[in-house]
Amino acid sequence: MVSSLQFKIPMPFCSFVFYLTLLPCLFTFALKFHSGNETDFQALLAIKAEITNDPYGILTTWNDSVHFCSWTGITCGHLHKRVTKLNLTSLDLVGTLSPYIGNLTFLTGLNLELNNFHGKIPPQVGGLFRLQHLNLTNNSFSGEIPMNLSHCSNLVMLRFGWNQLIGNIPFQFGSLQKLERFQVHYNNLSGLIPETLGNLSSIKSLSLAANNFDGTIPSSLGQLKSLNFLGLGINKLSGLVPAAIFNLSSLEIFTVPYNQLYGTLLSDLGFSLPNLKVLNIGHNWFTGHFPKSLSNASNLVELDANGSNFTGKVSIDFGGLSNLWWLILASNSIGNGKVDDLSFFNSLSRCRNLKVLDLSDCQFGGVLPDSIANLSTNLLSLRLGGNQLFGSIHSGIGNLVNLTELQLQKNNFSGSIPEVVGDLRMLQLVDLSENKLSGSIPSSISNMSRLYSLHLEKNELTGNIPLSFGNFQYLQDLDLSQNHLSGIIPNGVMSLSSLTVSLNLSDNRLSGPLSMEIGALNNLGKLDVSNNMLSGKIPSSIGRCITLESLILGGNFFEGTIPSSLSSLRGLEKLDLSRNNFSGQIPRFLQQISLKNLNLSFNQFEGQLPTEGVFSNATAISIFGNKNLCGGIPELKLPTCPNTESKGRDKSSSIKLMIPLLSGLLALVLIMSLVIIFRLRKARKESSLTSSPTGGFLLRVTYESLYRATNGFSSANLIGNGSFCSVYKGVLDPGERLVAVKVINIDQQGAFKSFVAECEALRNIRHRNLVKIYTACSTCDFEGNPFKALVYEYMPNGSLESWLHPTPEADASNNEVRILGLVERLNIAIDAACALEYLHHHCHKPIVHCDLKPDNILLDNDMTAHVADFGLAKFFSEAMSKYRPNQSSSIGMRGTIGYTAPEYSMGGKASPFGDVYSYGILLLEMFTGKRPTDNMFKDGLTLHNFAKMALPEINDEIVDPMLLPSSSSSREVQDEEEGIIDPDDSSVKQARECLISIIKIGVECSVESPRERIDIGDVVKELQLIRDILLASHAVQSSTSGSLRFEGSSSRSVTSNWHNFTSFRLP
């Protein structure tokens, strides 16, 4: 037997051999690791290089001082240290997406939402086979969607909404079996919706809304058994909705408004879609009845079928729809004009969450059922206008205590307006027009302290206009025309300075003179008192109604001459003085007003008719029935004025005789003129701008007078300084007028004409919240250099900036500590909003400010705010672009950093939306005490996001501590007039609610998308309501006012077009 040999190898030797064998593997791994790291590093630097603007300096961390895995927005794998996620959302970055993105081969998530990237989506993204989440929403990407994205087979989310993409959806996308969310809404995509999308077996959300897709809805979408959101609204789709879609039991939200779809809804719809929450099918061509089976859609929250062709009786039992809050069936042919058409109100009364009910412009008949008194007390909007309803307005409507909107117009209601309507104190809009209502107007209507629109026209109302109507504080639109009202017009009504839209009292039996108080209507756009029995002269104070665009006084017994104060109404477009007893000559200043229609017929005017302005257009004027008029343009065929021809011949003869004499003198005059001009240019002689086309300003100033007024433009008089202007305090000799002189430091060819043109456009713009421009000057200084200046009304309390962020030096110079309380800030915010509303909506041509910020809001002695630098943005922008073509400036980019709307940085045109954004930032700054450029706002955090994250509650970190003291504060409580709240005061809770509402408005003004920003007119109304309640809570500290968070009306009125929300809201 042979024994085996056993070799014993020492352990150290074994280890050596093992590591020697492993060494090539480790070397290969390290080489690949270093190579991969370097690839990612270089790719990230290439991505950074394509970003041209980084306003928050986020990418400054992208340098080699630390490993790229520590850079902002970067996530790496723990083992291989390769980039797996790139998240740069909401940073306002500007630039293009580098094709080197394709080198980040380990990338699973790319999120660039809410930036300003433009250009095409690089096709290299299609090579990222590990990619799961791709989000490019809210940018400006253009071009077509790369077809090779279909190679990213692991994609779970693909979001391209709110861009400028064109072309078709690639049919190859049907292969993305893991895709759960595909959203391309609000682009310019076109063509057919690919049938292959029906292969997306995992899809849960499919949003293709607001594009240009045409053709039919693919029947293959009925195969998507996991689908819970389908948004196809605002396209050009036609045909029938595939029946299979109505059998997708998982479907929760189905929105297809604003297409050309037709057909009927399936009778078992309520059973086949048991999870349905939102059904928006409005503005299509659907016909037939509403399925009774919708009674079983117990999860339904919103039903909107506005503007379709549905017919028949509403047979839905709404009693089981306990979550329903939005029901709009308006503009259909539903109802039969029968007394039981509204019988479904009985079941609606069990929908205790109902807030919006719109059944307007249908064919409902009968009377208002008793069950209207039992509708949800949460109801905000009730619209039944444009039907065939009759009988009296049910007194039970007084139970709907939270109504903000009541529309019953264009029906056959009769009887009197119930007194209980006055109990609906939350109402903001009431329209009872075009009915058969009779009796007097209840004075209780004036209890609706928040009312901004009241329409009672075309009824049979009698009696006087209630004196209490003069108590409205926020009323903007009042129409009582075509009734049988009598008596005088109350002085309080004629002095409602809140009226901005229209005051229409025409076609009644009103008598007496127009009150001198009419001058208080200085924000009004239209005044119509025609076809009454008014008498006397037109009050001269009407000249203060400088925003009037339409003045209709025809069909009365007015007399006298046309007052010269009408010359102040520079924005007037329509003037009707017909069928009165006016006399005298037609004033020539009417030629200078921008009239488009002038009716002077059937009066007693005499003398020569002017021939310029509106008088040069025979179709724009009417002068019939004035027997003693002469002259005018030939088309009017008026008699020639006496002595006109003979005087013309005499003048002609005289001119012929003087020609030889003048010819001899002309050469001498020319020579002398050249000598004088040469010397004037070298000397200090200047010609004032007021002798130029801008002669409509109030003062005539020269360089010398402004030099004296500002003590030689001394530094002691300097009160402001900017990149293109300096502002000096001065005293002009006439009347020792205190003024602010803005010297514009721009010297360029053509600047004079541009400057004059801009000033000419500004001279007719007047509003109590705009800084008054006294005059302008464009001339040469003592050394012959061009000089341009604007002379403003001086504001003794300086800028809002100096109050929000006072410096110790400023406080010392004013011998006071500058503190703004809650009420004062709210007043200033309202003043600024009113100024913007005027510029946007009530000027002859809308004006965009472009640079709204605290520095441009000035405060007078009464702390009333006045917006400055309006209307000059275009001049400064053009001037800076020519004078400093290679230098950036805040004006050149339409605003100041921090306040500028994001779309401006991408080259977007100036628009009122941009001003609203700036105003939102301003509002947040006023009530948080934080500048938008504060150092705390970095790493994606902005003032907008900072405020938004705090809602729906607020705390001491969000709000300026001067406005919301804590209970432990040792600071003395300030005087109530300053608006600083005592923590022990019972109004503290109300103040908190007030601040929440204000912050919400600021946030919604400053949203990224311009189309989603609140209109400045709505801002004014809501801030005024907040102030009203806040002041009431101070006045009656023992009362407990309702919450200021107006759930349905906070910064977006429920009367707005809700389809923009319901159609495209994403899960």
What is the topological layout?
Layout: H1 11-49, E1 51-53, E2 74-76, E3 83-87, E4 94-96, E5 109-111, E6 116-120, E7 133-135, E8 140-144, E9 157-159, E10 164-167, E11 181-183, E12 188-192, E13 205-207, E14 212-215, E15 229-231, E16 236-240, E17 253-255, E18 260-263, H2 269-272, E19 278-280, E20 285-288, E21 302-304, E22 309-312, E23 326-328, E24 333-334, H3 345-348, E25 356-358, E26 365-366, E27 381-383, E28 388-391, E29 405-407, E30 412-415, E31 429-431, E32 436-439, E33 453-455, E34 460-463, E35 477-479, E36 484-487, E37 502-504, E38 509-513, E39 526-528, E40 533-536, E41 550-552, E42 557-560, E43 574-576, E44 581-585, E45 597-599, E46 604-609, E47 621-622, E48 628-631, H4 644-682, H5 703-709, E49 718-721, E50 725-732, E51 737-744, H6 751-762, E52 773-780, E53 786-793, H7 800-804, H8 808-813, H9 822-841, E54 857-859, E55 865-867, H10 873-883, H11 912-928, H12 943-950, H13 988-1005, H14 1016-1035, H15 1059-1062
Parallel strand pairs: 3-5, 4-6, 5-7, 6-8, 7-9, 8-10, 9-11, 10-12, 11-13, 12-14, 13-15, 14-16, 15-17, 16-18, 17-19, 18-20, 19-21, 20-22, 21-23, 22-24, 23-25, 25-27, 26-28, 27-29, 28-30, 29-31, 30-32, 31-33, 32-34, 33-35, 34-36, 35-37, 36-38, 37-39, 38-40, 39-41, 40-42, 41-43, 42-44, 43-45, ...
Antiparallel strand pairs: 1-4, 2-3, 49-50, 50-51, 51-53, 52-53, 54-55
Helix pairs in contact: 9-11, 9-14, 11-13, 12-13, 13-14
